[in-house]
Write a structure and sequence with these properties.
With 505 residues, the protein is an alpha+beta fold. The chain has 4 domains: 231 residues, Thrombin, subunit H (Beta Barrel); 46 residues, no CATH class; 101 residues, PDZ domain (Pdz3 Domain), CATH 2.30.42; 81 residues, Pdz3 Domain. It has 11 helices and 29 strands. β13 and β14 form a beta hairpin. The two termini are 47 Å apart.
């Protein structure tokens, strides 16, 4: 019986770690991603199945199963079990919230419980270190004990144990973890271990069979299969990863496990699911193995990972934007803002530019740009093909170091309406310029018609129309006189700059 049919829930993107740190039992936990490593010749290639036939899942599993490991982690979290909240029903409220009930100091058993360490009886209400446990998956990439998994699997762990299929267990050292790509590298003290072979996502095709091995809900070395649903997926979490989407069953505990192609090569690391319930519902995401290999290489060499930065906020080019900027098709990354002093500003990028290629690689969706930059190295030069004012411009940027921040994706309401623009405008007052952090533009006092339907709000500051500055009403009229069926308004709202497409008719 489908219980979701009568109980709609918010669709959530969830990490697939069973009993993640911070939880007290098995089941779904929090959320995130991972990466991979370097090829090993230890396992012979699996022959690809002829067209029209299923690959030999049994053969792939037999060859690679011994190199897939179960990962268990323990840690601690600080929890106050004797706070000073006013509970009308005392211990009953504490029990509902998962806390130890408070005992009156005058109770004859109070001293007994305090002396023997009963939770919450430290007399001061001080936070206590509570043990936490988590489960995940991983795979061995070198005979001397390098293991790949997700960064979120080992986040906050004080003790990591790797268990092999032959039931041997090893204490693992976390060599490094990269939250931006959700890849972590572990090391166990062992020799002559079975390893997986690494493949390539370049040859991976949508509709191709893939197979996952992992430990969903702690059931070790479980095998599930499906097909590639899409490649290069950008997720709404500021991730630098161009995910592989599959319909392979992935559940809590599968995090960090390998995704194999029909030749028995690892092409990804299973990382996230898209779900209404917290469990598998047909949409899973894996980190491409090439990205994981680059992360692993840096972690092994230096113990940390550096990411490049361009210094722009970008958003999708939809059909309305394509018409506004005279593009032949709705592709590219629309530059909404440029960070002052960034490599983007030094290269000459401007709001309203549409980045269509980087080093000859097409930028189709806006997420392709941060994914490319995230895999580049600081100091690397990037050749940008940019669409500006109806023609192509070539720029070169020297990428910076992202530190804790990378290229980000701007968000916009893409709803549009018909008719006139529908804006009431006035010049900015000096104080408004200082508050908004802009030197020019027009305050939107009222939005109606197409502009309101597109999400423009009173209080927004109009900065440009189709890339042309909007410093005064005359410039707005001139821009509108040249407009076609739609216009792209660059607005400033709460310190953020974003393009909003408005369809005029």
């Amino acid at each position: 019986m489908n219980t979701l049919a009568s109980t709609p829930r918010r669709l959530v993107l969830a990490l697939v770690t069973a009993g993640a740190l911070g939880a007290t039992g098995a089941g779904l936990i929090s959320a995130h991603q991972a990466r991979a490593l370097t090829p090993s010749p230890a396992i012979a290639a699996t022959a690809q199945a002829p067209v029209g036939q299923l690959p030999s899942f049994a053969q792939i599993t037999a060859q690679n199963g011994p190199a897939v490991v179960n990962i268990s982690v323990t840690g601690t979290t600080r929890t106050s079990l004797n706070d000073d909240e006013d509970d009308d029903d005392g211990g009953q409220a504490a029990a509902r919230q998962g806390r130890a009930p408070r005992i009156d100091p005058d109770d004859p058993f109070y001293e007994f419980f305090r002396q023997f360490g009963f939770p919450g009886m430290n007399g001061q209400g001080q936070p206590r270190a509570m043990p936490t446990h988590g489960l995940g998956s991983g795979f061995i990439v070198s005979p001397d004990g390098l293991v790949l998994t997700n960064a979120h699997v080992v986040k906050g762990a004080s003790d990591v144990t790797v268990k092999l299929t032959d039931r041997r267990e090893f204490r693992a050292k976390v060599l490094g973890a990269d939250p931006k790509t959700d890849v972590a590298v572990l090391k166990i003290d062992a020799k002559n271990l079975p390893t997986v072979r690494l493949g390539s996502t370049r040859d991976l095709q949508v509709g191709e069979w893939v197979l996952a091995i992992g430990s969903p809900f702690g059931f070790e070395n479980s095998v599930t299969a499906g097909v590639v649903s899409a490649k290069g997926r950008s997720l709404p979490d500021d991730s630098l990863v161009p995910f592989i989407q599959t319909d392979v069953a992935v559940n809590p505990g599968n995090s960090g496990g390998p995704l194999f192609n029909a030749r028995g090569e690892v092409v990804g690391i299973n990382s996230q699911i898209y779900s209404r319930s917290g469990g598998y519902q047909g949409v899973s995401f894996a980190i491409p193995i090439e990205l994981a290999a680059k992360v692993q290489e840096q972690i092994v060499a230096t113990g940390k990972v550096r990411h490049a930065q361009l210094g722009v906020a970008v958003q999708e080019v939809n059909q309305a934007f394509a018409e506004s900027f005279q593009l032949d098709k709705p592709e590219g990354a629309l530059v909404a803002s440029v960070t002052p002093g960034s490599p983007a500003e030094k290269a000459g990028l401007e709001p309203g530019d549409v980045i269509r290629q980087v080093d000859g690689q097409p930028i189709v969706a806006s997420g392709d740009l941060p994914a490319w930059v995230g895999q580049a190295k600081p100091g690397q030069q990037a050749r940008l093909s940019v669409w500006r004012h109806g023609k192509s411009v070539e720029l070169t940027a020297t990428l910076g170091d992202a530190n804790d921040k990378g290229s980000k994706l701007a968000r916009a309401d893409e709803a549009v309406g018909k008719g006139q623009l529908g804006l009431s405008l006035r010049p900015l007052e000096p104080q408004e310029r200082r508050d908004a952090g802009v030197t020019e533009g027009l305050v939107i006092e009222q939005a109606r018609g197409p502009a309101a339907a597109a999400g423009v709000q009173p209080g927004d500051v109009l900065l440009a129309i189709n890339g042309a500055p909007a410093k005064n009403i005359d410039q707005v009229r001139a821009a509108m006189a040249k407009a076609g069926k739609s216009v792209a308004l660059l607005i400033e709202r709460n310190g953020d700059k974003i393009f909003v497409p408005v369809r005029l008719g």
